[in-house]
Amino acid sequence: MRKLFLWTCAAVFLRLPDSAAQEQRPLQLEDRREIFVDTHLIGSLHNVRMAMHTPQEAGVAFYFDKPWEGRFSGYVTVIQDGGRFRAYYRGEPVAGKDGNAGEVTCLAESADGKTWQKPLLQQYVVAGHKRNNVVLAHATPASHNFSPFLDKNPAAPAAQRYKAFSGTRETGLLAYASADGIRWEKMQAAPVITKGAFDSQNVVFWSESERQYVCYFRTMTAPVRGERFRSVSRSVSKDFLHWSEPEEMQFGNTPMEHLYTQQTSPYFRAPHIYLAIGARFMPNRQVVPAEEARRLKVDPAYYKDCSDVVLMATRGGNVYSRTFMESFIRPGIGLDNWVSRSNYPALNVVQTGPDELSLFVNEAYAQPGAHLKRYTLRLDGFASLNAPYAGGEVITKAFTFSGRELEINYATSAAGGIRIEMQDAEGTPLPGFTMEDATTIIGNETKRVVRWKGSADVSALAGKTVRLKIHMKDADLYALKFNK
Fold it and tell me: How far apart are CA 70 and CA 405, in angstroms?
């Protein structure tokens, strides 16, 4: 069939590495959404690449401008609870030792994730003010890196609907709980995890796919060519109070880098995939000259390093997929974000529009204008399978699924398009689902059902081992999912 799709044969055929044992076992997709932040579903690529997409700036969410907040505010967590968004963060107007008495935990709220207000809670007197947005104070060292989450464990009691971890190397990680996310109580005096460095944002959540609590926290590696790296370990728990021995995370065959925060959390549209949108720290990599630092009014201790944002993923276990080593969000034009500990992303990605995701990043750290900035992506738009005008082909690994229709998130040019063939495990086209039967898909939609000869019904193939052959021309494929 030679109409829209004329595929080049000059490109190199790429088969992604995989063990023979893995190839023999079909993946079990069920009705879960798959996004292309790793090679989990990909068998081979022919003139198609995996492309990471750059979030777009959407303006300042809010400034850390209260007397108890200030230029050293950070370690932000954004939580969507029903129709309300909440941002928890450390307030620290003057730099001090980790866990110093001047640190507090603050709260901002939003109805849409775009415009934010700071509620007057009147729980604590801080800096001479009781009319403030502080949810935790005078609880050294909890406010240094207080990292809350909304507990999705169906067995969690209402009084512990919110939970959190915080702590330093000296104290270990302490467990907190709250019914409303405003009034917090320590769950027990003793720390629940003690083996770690913890001098970062240590994140924890209930995993729907693993059916247990999972914690990713700061550790330091053994010396590598004389240098120890800031890194990540993982522990798991069934009850939130008793945790497994820490297991160091691995990064595949990639260079060692300092990860100051890792921000691992389930992607809410595909919770079996944990996204780690973290801060890559480059110690002693100075960009800002001393005279420019004085002009920016950067604290003198905070301009001789730099950092940016990276994208990793994991599906549980102790391995991160570092499919993309390039920066996810760069420091950008100007020098105010080329300072130490700027560009640290907030924990969690949230939906702020029908087709829009938002993520948030600390910027202008250690400066009078320190703030949280919002960035946006399309739904599932972290990365895609991208084909050029010449066209290309993707063949998935063999898998089973449950459902009645195949839905994709995609974009093409006016001249481009996508066609999908369903095959058996050996690559034989299945009758009624061949490339000749396939409808050519053109456009830009976050939700589109694939059809063959006008029909979308694939239920006859549910439970069988199949694979997809995807022809693409000047197009991006962001996600696919079988719907029940």
Answer: 51
> What is the C-alpha separation between 213 and 151, in angstroms, rounded?
9
Say how far apart CA 166 and CA 172 lie, in whole Å.
8
Could you tell me which residues come within 8 angstroms of residue 93 by beta carbon, excluding any fewer than 6 positions away? 67, 68, 69, 70, 71, 72, 102, 127
39 by Cβ neighbours in 10 Å (0-12 / 13-18 / 19+) ranks as: middle
**Ordered DSSP codes for 292-336:** HHHHHT--TTSSS-EEEEEEEEESSTTB-B----S-SB---SSST
CA angle 267, 273, 278 (to 5 degrees): 65
Query: Whose structure tokens read 């066209």?
Result: 391
For 44, the 3-state DSSP assignment is strand
How do residues 23-64 score in pLDDT, each as one tens digit? 579 999 999 999 999 999 999 999 999 999 999 999 999 999
pTM of the predicted structure, to 2 decimals? 0.94
pLDDT tens digit string along 343-354?
Answer: 999 999 999 999
360-383, pLDDT tens digit by residue? 999 999 999 999 999 999 999 999
Which of 412-447 are b and which e, b meaning 16 or more Cβ less than 10 Å from the residue's Cβ? Answer: beeebbbbbbbbebeeeebeebbbebbbebbeeebe
Q: What is the DSSP string of 374-437?
A: EEEEETTTTEEEEE-TT-EEEEEPPEEE-SSEEEEEEEEEEEEEEEEEEEETTSPBPTT-STTT
What is the C-alpha separation between 35 and 41, in angstroms, rounded? Answer: 9
Whole-angstrom CA distances from 401 to 16, 17, 343, 468 are 22, 23, 39, 12
Q: What is the pLDDT of residues 181-211, one digit of tens each?
A: 999 999 999 999 999 999 999 999 999 999 9
What's the rounded Cα separation, in Å, for the pair 269 and 208? Answer: 12
Are residues 146 and 79 in contact, defined by beta-carbon separation less than 8 angstroms? no
> What sign does the dihedral 60-62-65-70 (CA atoms) show?
negative
| Three-point CA angle 284, 92, 101, nearest 5° | 110
372-412 pLDDT, tens digit each: 999 999 999 999 999 999 999 999 999 999 999 999 999 99
